[in-house]
Specification:
By secondary structure, this protein is of the alpha/beta class. The protein has one domain: 3-Layer(aba) Sandwich (Rossmann fold), CATH 3.40.50.2300. Helices cover 36% and strands 19% of the residues. It is built from 5 helices and 5 strands, in the order βαβαβαβαβα. The chain has a 5-stranded parallel sheet with strand order 2-1-3-4-5, with helices on both faces. The chain starts with 5 loop residues before the first strand and ends in a 12-residue tail after the last helix.
Length: 131
């Protein structure tokens, strides 16, 4: 798989990371899962993923600050911030300022639709995975 098919998922909670991966799992995609921002930023030095999905609450860096750094290093990488039901004003401003491409609140039912739209993928050859 090329970097064009690569998606980073960054969330400190293993079950959340796995759940996001299950929701986005697709045979044409590859994934790298990270538990913190620093690990993902280190990998970003050698790869250019198509998309980075990050939780708002990371152990070492705020999700908005992390995605701003991703945007600075790799301007063409698409970014999605996942937050709890209460979305802070800073996340909404980041969306307005184009630091992040999309903001998805938990529960994340709309995440696959958002990712397909950002990556310009169709639905013709894909069926959702039941979990």
């Amino acid at each position: 798989m090329s970097d064009h098919d690569l998606i980073y998922i960054v969330d400190e909670r293993p079950l959340s990371r796995h759940g996001l991966w299950l929701r986005l799992m697709h045979r044409k995609r590859s994934f790298r899962l990270f538990g913190d921002a620093c690990s993902a930023l280190a990998a970003l030095e050698h790869e250019a993923p198509a998309l980075v999905v990050a939780d708002l609450d990371l152990p070492d860096l705020d999700g908005v600050a992390f995605l701003a750094e991703v945007r600075r290093r790799r301007p063409v990488v698409r970014t999605v911030l996942v937050s709890g039901t209460e979305t802070p004003i800073g996340a909404r401003h980041a969306l307005q300022d184009r630091i992040i491409d999309e903001l998805v609140a938990r529960p994340v039912e709309a995440l696959d639709y958002v990712v397909r739209r950002l990556l310009r993928e169709g639905w013709d050859d894909w069926l959702p995975v039941a979990v």
